[in-house]
Amino acid sequence: KLGCLGEGKEKHALQKLIGSNCLGRHIQLHGNVTAPWSIIAASEYFLLPSRWVGMPNVVLESRASGTPVIAAAQANGIREIQKNSHKGTVKIAKDMEELIDLMIQVKPENNNSPRKSLLPETFQTPNIMAQFEKILNE
């Protein structure tokens, strides 16, 4: 089942599209979720179709929970995250057609056990703290 987190101005159009295509049992709109980590951790992939985003912290959170990522190329910071990740764990789509193709390729695993973190070492807490301390001490 596809789960969508967050809300936006297209929410009602999306609900209508889901209804008119009888997809209600396949797509769940969660809305704004304060603590989405359990949903993300239980997902086969995290999809970031956003075209306007700064550093996508939610992608780092997804990586920390062991969830691989499919993202739009326009998402700022996504190439840096991909560059520092294990090959194939961050897939970047150049356009909507490729985004859909990557989604179709996802094969359900039905694995309920916690996965190992995929967060690149560069983005792990000790490294980030060291970078902040270096900036503060300069």
Q: Which secondary structure elements does this structure contain, and how are they paired or packed?
A:
Blueprint: E1 2-5, H1 11-20, E2 27-31, H2 37-41, E3 46-48, H3 57-64, E4 69-72, H4 78-83, E5 90-93, H5 96-104, H6 125-137
Detailed description of the structure:
There is one protein chain. This protein is α/β, with parallel strands linked by helices and 138 residues long. It has 6 helices and 5 strands; from the N terminus they run E-H-E-H-E-H-E-H-E-H-H. The strands form 2 sheets. Strands 3-4-5 form a 3-stranded parallel sheet, with helices on both faces. A two-stranded parallel ribbon has the order 1-2. The longest helix is centred in the C-terminal third of the chain and has 13 residues, at 125-137. The protein is globular and about 60 Å long. The termini are far apart.
Bin the helical content: 25-40%
Assembly status = single chain
Terminal-residue CA separation: 49 Å
Largest sheet: 3 strands, parallel
Strand content: 5-15%
* Overall spatial form: globular
How would you summarize this macromolecular structure in one to three sentences?
By secondary structure, the protein is of the alpha/beta class. It has helices spanning 11-20, 37-41, 57-64, 78-83, 96-104, 125-137, and strands at residues 2-5, 27-31, 46-48, 69-72, 90-93. The model has no long low-confidence stretch (mean pLDDT 85).
Pick out its properties.
5 strands, single chain, 138 residues
